[in-house]
Amino acid sequence: MHHLPVESRPREKLLQRGAEALSDAELMAIVLRTGMVGKNVLTLAQELLDRFGGVSGLLNANAAELKTIKGLGGPAKRALVLAVLALSRRALAEQLKAGPAFEDPKSVKQYVQLHLGHKTHEVFAVLFLNAQHRLMAMEELFRGSLTQTSVYPREVVQRALHHQAAAVILAHNHPSGHVKPSPADLKITEALKAALALLDVRVLDHLIVAPGLSYSMAENGHF
């Protein structure tokens, strides 16, 4: 990046003007530090973001996936990227654990997006909350199409008892990219609400996510 004017170099720009002045690619270029023969670091950073569908997709990347990116072949560079991504995920989890989840529903959606949004198979997860609606744990419980034969209310009830949860948020992803709930989604939501109500555990929401998209059943009148 030394060939660029000082004001255009991401690192100098960050120090002088703050992170808000930088694009996602510029911030990623600072993490990568160097490009490769025939490709500068800004181009490599943008290609990395494009490959994973932006920052939210990149946050789900693993070591094997990063190894397939030309220019990230060295273990030191991949380890640095993975460390930054892991810290980002942990920061969001800490934010949810520090305060009531429903005081910041946007963060809840982001958290679910990070974990489920870019999976290529359907996953059903449950966020277990305490009496103050703070996040205690998130567990991926089922895989496959969301039907009453693939999601077992008894197992959700057992995990709620294990965590001594006062409330839960249901979540799953739609790899198809469409987040509008299907009749099966609505049906299993009602079944889980009824089962958990026997324990006096409230179902606060059911979130459906896809790459770059999210849908809250609570916000759309299903609760």
Q: How large is the radius of gyration?
A: 20 Å
Give the CATH superfamily of the largest domain.
Answer: Cytidine Deaminase, domain 2
Low-confidence stretches: none
Provide mean pLDDT, rounded. Answer: 83
Q: Which class of the largest domain in CATH terms?
A: Alpha Beta
Number of DSSP E strands: 5
Spatial sequence of strands, sheet with the most strands: 2-1-3-4-5
Characterize the structure shown.
With 223 residues, this protein is α+β, with helices and mostly antiparallel strands. It folds into two domains: 6-93, DNA polymerase, domain 1; 101-216, Cytidine Deaminase, domain 2. The protein has helices at residues 10-17, 24-32, 41-52, 55-58, 63-67, 75-98, 105-116, 153-163, 183-197; strands spanning 123-129, 135-143, 167-173, 202-210, 213-216. The chain has a five-stranded mixed beta sheet, sandwiched between helices.
